[in-house]
Amino acid sequence: MSYTENGTTDFVATLDANRVQQEMLQKHLSKAVSSSSHGAHPFATTLKGELHRVTRFVKDQQEGLERSAKALFLRAHALATATGTMQQMSVQESYDIVHYHKRSTRKAVDDCLALQVFFTKSRAMLLENASTADKKLSKDRNCFGQAVNCSSLVHEILPKAHLNSSLVCIISDIYHALRHAEEQIKNNANGGGDGDAPLWQSPSSFQRDTTKYWVKDQNLTKLMMTCAMEAPLLVYGKKGPLTSTDPRDGKVSDGDKLWDSLATRITSIYFDSHDMSLYKERLARAEGAQLLRARWYGTTIPTGDKIIFVELKTHHEKWVAQKSVKERASIQERDMLTFLLPVPWKREDAEQMIIRAKPNMKAEELAKATGLLLRMHNLVVNHQLTACIRSVYDRAAFQSSKSNGELSCLVGRKVQIY
Fold first, then answer.
1. What pLDDT, in 10s, does the model give residues 244-274?
2. What is the DSSP letter of 291?
């Protein structure tokens, strides 16, 4: 990839160069069809070198984009925290500065997406050539008597179809800072104050409209960039920017930052009857269909007094004057077996279980949580529910920490069902 004098990226030239490289690989393949090898096959060696070349190239470009994005973030962060400076400007001047930063950030996003397109096409081209080689060289063997397997080289050296997610974290921080700056401008114009976003806490109950999609891995970068532009990346237990605000910190991220260290591991256990009655009602989207599950966050399985969330999801049809709702109560792990026993409870049983998990709840909150836990246990008793399915996946959440009722974009990966 080459850069012009004004800093824009010339991806067309790079793609043209790769078309030439593809023709060279095809020539190597033609020569290799009738050849034999006492070690690694000549075409496999050529392909491996090309795969490493693409890997190094994409890595270098990602690091360059990340450094440029960090510089954009530092300017956006300074703008968002410069309360006095913003107050000295006119409203229009302030908005003009924010919009300038948005255009610069959008350019960075476009460059990242262009690199993703380049990577996707390069990987597809290399995989196509590797598959062709496997067919034409199917009778060839190396010195160990093994068949040539070029396709496995592609999956080994380029295992992911998406770019490193570290740039998504920076873009999220930039847009979050610019949104904060816009709020300041609006508050200054209206004579209002300014406050920091609180540390996010999961609500015990909320209504929502949900739409879910399957997305190919090669489209993950575009999806997450789009999410980052609409809502900030929310990491459970963290407050403030995910990107360093130290201008001397020029270090680029090592590895897939978001998915390696910031995504949340979510484990859920779903309960149902022997005839799967709850599942069948949910599948038919029947009015009032319910789902009961236990859920925890993180890679460590909770034990003893550690908290597990027991959740009840209730579906309502559009013609009903209610929205679908998800409700949750917190109990200690040691109380899960008692919760699942098909023995009727009194209200006091549910209340004591809630108090053990959250002893400092207010009276109104305690009454609501107690009623919910009692309803969920009655569901266990009435339907003879037992543990049925366990799911585990990593999730990235894009949503404001100020409100749970606004837009929320959740991206789940590495889904496992047991």
1. 999 888 888 877 889 988 999 999 999 999 9
2. E
- State whether residue 313 is helix, strand or coil: strand
Q: Going by DSSP bridges, is the β-strand pair 290-297/264-272 parallel, antiparallel, or unpaired?
A: antiparallel
Listed in sequence order, the residues at least 6 apart from 18 whose beta carbon sits closer than 8 Å to its beta carbon are 118, 121, 122, 125
Give CA–CA dist 417/267, Å, rounded: 10
Instruction: State the pLDDT at residue 250.
Output: 82
Mean pLDDT of 17-23: 57
Residue 326's H or E segment, with its range, is: strand 325-332
Give backbone dihedrals phi and psi of 230, rounded to 5 degrees, phi first: -100, -35
Secondary structure letter of residue 410 according to DSSP = E
Nearest to 54 by CA among 168, 159, 150: 159
Measure the CA dihedral 341/344/347/349, to 10°.
-40
* Rounded Cα distance, 245 and 248, in Å: 9
Q: What is the DSSP letter of 334?
A: G
Name residue 295's beta-bridge partners.
268, 309
Label residue 5 by pLDDT band (50, 70, 90). Answer: very low
Sole residue written with tokens 């237990």: 237
3-state secondary structure of 207: strand
- Taking the C-alpha atoms of residue 30 and residue 372, their distance in angstroms, rounded to an integer, is 69
Query: For 219-244, how does the pLDDT look when each residue is reduced to its tens digit (9 = 90+)?
Result: 999 999 999 999 999 987 788 899 99
The kind and range of the H/E element at 380 are helix 363-383
C-alpha dist (Å) from residue 50 to 10, 22, 151, 279, 281: 21, 10, 13, 49, 53
The phi, psi pair for 325, rounded to 5°, reads: -140, 145
Question: By 3-state DSSP, what share of the chain in percent is helix, strand and coil, each rounded to 5?
Answer: 50, 15, 35
Give CA–CA dist 42/27, Å, rounded.
Answer: 12
